[in-house]
Amino acid sequence: MDAEARRLLDMVGLPGHFGDRFPHQLSGGQARRVGVARALAINPKLVVADEPTAGLDVSVQGEVLNLLAQLQGEFGLSIMVITHNLNVVRHIADRMAIMYLGRFLEQGPTEEVFHHPRHPYTLALLSANPEPNPDAVIDRVELKGEVPSLLNRPTGCEFHTRCPFAQSKCRTEFPPASREVADHSYYCHYPLQRDASSA
């Protein structure tokens, strides 16, 4: 095995002899680290991490996220994380974007979006996020109905078929972009008040 492979394995916290192993000889966390090493092999400026913690134990998830954060600081990488796990987003991302039917509905600095969600879909996702404090009072937002087909998108705001706050305008007009403090933007005719928070 060449020196470059050993260097990459060392960067992700694996000993050099792992370069001689087959995929079935790696644990989930080790395999994820090898994936990160492969991504780093081309000296990227941007790494796209699609569900980087899926299928891993919680302790291993933390190790992988800490590794990504360490590499980000060490090499000045930008990392785009695609995930359904909002706790991962909060742990690692400076900015976040919420998508519905493949389109951004809200985006901005992570803590701003967590503390002041403006789109009802964002509020629903945040309210469904697991809360480790058993004494926490959580006001869940229940979404009813099926997710529409991408081949037959609803008119107007595409979320109106499931939105608990939808009004007649939402059914006919797609909302324009609204921008706020700290470059927080969203698409909603009737945005939530800034004191709405599930964080």
Summarize this entry quickly.
With 199 residues, the chain is α+β, with helices and mostly antiparallel strands. The protein has seven helices and six strands.
What does this structure look like?
The chain has 199 residues and is α+β, with helices and mostly antiparallel strands. The protein folds into two domains: 1-93, Rossmann fold (3-Layer(aba) Sandwich); 94-199, no CATH class. The protein is 34% helix and 15% strand. It is built from seven helices and six strands; from the N terminus they run ααβαβαββαααββ. It has helices at residues 3-11, 28-40, 58-75, 86-92, 110-115, 120-128, 168-172; strands spanning 46-50, 78-82, 95-100, 103-109, 177-179, 185-187. Helix 3 (58-75) links the parallel strand 1 (46-50) and strand 2 (78-82). Helix 2 runs parallel beside helix 3.
Low-confidence stretches: none
- The tally of helices reads 7
Measured between the Cα atoms of the first and last residue, the distance is: 48 Å
* Share of β-strand residues: 5-15%
Order of helices and strands: HHEHEHEEHHHEE
- Mean pLDDT, nearest integer? 91
Global shape? elongated
Q: Looking across the biggest beta sheet, what order are the strands in?
A: 3-4-6-5
How many domains? The number is 2
Which structural class fits the helix and strand makeup?
Answer: alpha+beta
Largest sheet: 4 strands, antiparallel
What would you report as the Rg, rounded to the nearest angstrom? Answer: 20 Å
Q: Kindly state the percentage of residues in helix.
A: 25-40%
